[in-house]
Structure formats: structure tokens, C-alpha cells
Design goal:
The chain is α/β, with parallel strands linked by helices. It contains ten helices and eleven strands. Strand 4, helix 2 and strand 5 form a beta-alpha-beta unit.
Length: about 250
């Protein structure tokens, strides 16, 4: 199956304007992510989808592929679909790789592709075991529960499941919780379909677009990864990442 990796890279950000161009030890964040994606053996092509000429110039400076997209997209998913539509070649699978995760590992990208190649899902994503109680109760850390088959049951900003017989202070020690990592693989037809579905009640409640997909009966495969990735949402997050790179 022919696969493309698309990196949405929007310039405007409430908490961190110009984030894709932030320097991480001599390379921009978008270049760091691009190089990781290019190392994934299951991607036939990598392209950045942006809305800003400065990011276009940056990607071209290191020889990357880039597509200019509309500035008014509501999500990275919509931006991915526009970038896909601009391709001359047809692709069977699209991988949405977050432009603010310079620690994404090529094996994780390959894993989401493999989950779709197995033919049991329309969308794939990854989960990582939550390691601290602070993270468990942080609403910015999205939690996920899934069936034994790996099919996603629900995503939430609240810890799930609720442990009825234990005080919340004991939840972490009595159950294994997983957080959702923001990488997605889509079958091409599924990506087109989900961009045409209106926001759902659960999505509006939790501000999580993947709930729209579940509410519309789309099968999402969840793979467990042993590799943690770090998203950069603020300048403070960048400072932490700079220390990790050092």
C-alpha cells in the first residue's frame, strides 16, 4: 500500500506563535520532525502542509516537500486532506504526524501504518502507559481505553475508567492507564469521509475530534508503544526539550 506522511505546520498559535520555526540546537522544529518522518521505512513520501510563506521557505531550505494550504482549517486533519488532494500520486494510507513532536520515532510511524495494513481498522493511532499520577489527572493529557482487540472504545481528558471502589488518590496504583499520542494513520477514503462529518456532541464536550469518528462508527485501532514522545505547546515546553536534546 502506498503511504504518505503529512506534517501539518501552522504558523499562528495562541500559546506559541511561529512554533514550527523554533530552533532546536541548530535546526527548526519542522526540520527535526521532517527528518524523523523521512527515516520511517513505511512512508513513500513526506510533505509539510502549512499556511505560511515563512514555513514554506524553511522547508524548501532543507530540501523538503511542502504544500501551501488554506489558513482557516479547523484541525490538522482538514489540513492533511487538502495537502493530500494536492498530490499528483494516489496514496492508500495517510499518516498525520504532529509538527510539534521532534521526538517522534520512525518506528512509531511504521507502527500506525502496520495497524492499517492488517485490514481491521480505518484509522490507527498509538497509546503510551501513563507513568505518573500528575499526568493521569492532567486534562491536557488525553486518556484512551481500548478493547482486547486494540479497538478504541473512548478518549477522554478525564481519567478513564472510573475506579468505583477506590479513592481517586489510589487510582494510579490500582489500574494501568494509557495516554493517547497524537499521531494518526488514515485510509485515504476514511480521511475524506471524516472531513465531511459535522462536529459531534462528544467532540464538543471534550474538544477531541477523534470522538466524532467514534460516534460515527469508525473503527480506530490503538497500538501500544514503548516509546514516549513529547509535544511542544509552549516556550516552556521548548526549554524542557532543549535540555533533553542536550
Amino acid at each position: 500500500m502506498k503511504t504518505i506522511g503529512i506534517i501539518p505546520a501552522r504558523f499562528a498559535s495562541t500559546r506559541f506563535p511561529g512554533k514550527p520555526l523554533a530552533s532546536i540546537h541548530g535546526k527548526s522544529m519542522v526540520q527535526r520532525v521532517y527528518e524523523k518522518a523521512e527515516s520511517a521505512s513505511k512512508l513513500d513520501r513526506v510533505v509539510v502542509a502549512t499556511d505560511d510563506d515563512r514555513i514554506v521557505t524553511e522547508v524548501k531550505s532543507f530540501g523538503g516537500n511542502v504544500v501551501m494550504t488554506r489558513p482557516d482549517h479547523m484541525s490538522g486533519t482538514d489540513r492533511c486532506y487538502e495537502a493530500l488532494s494536492a498530490q499528483i500520486t494516489d496514496f492508500d494510507i495517510v499518516v498525520n504526524i504532529q509538527g510539534d513532536e521532534p521526538f517522534i520515532h520512525p518506528d512509531q510511524i511504521n507502527q500506525v501504518v502496520t495497524l492499517l495494513e492488517n485490514g481491521n481498522a480505518e484509522i490507527s493511532t498509538l497509546a503510551f502507559k501513563i507513568l505518573t499520577e500528575v499526568e493521569l489527572f492532567n486534562p491536557n493529557t488525553v486518556k484512551v481505553i481500548f478493547a482486547d482487540s486494540g479497538r478504541a472504545i473512548y478518549f477522554s481528558r478525564h481519567p478513564i475508567p472510573f475506579l468505583r471502589n477506590f479513592a481517586q488518590s489510589h487510582w494510579f496504583s490500582h489500574h494501568t492507564y494509557y495516554k493517547h499520542l497524537g499521531i494518526y494513520g488514515y485510509l485515504t477514503n476514511t480521511l475524506k469521509r471524516i472531513t465531511q462529518i459535522h462536529p459531534s456532541p462528544l467532540e464538543k464536550a471534550e474538544s477531541l475530534e477523534q470522538l466524532r469518528w467514534l460516534e460515527n462508527g469508525i473503527n480506530i485501532a490503538v497500538g501500544i508503544t514503548a516509546i514516549e514522545s513529547f509535544g511542544i505547546d509552549t516556550p516552556d515546553d521548548l526549554e524542557k526539550v532543549l535540555k533533553l536534546f542536550a
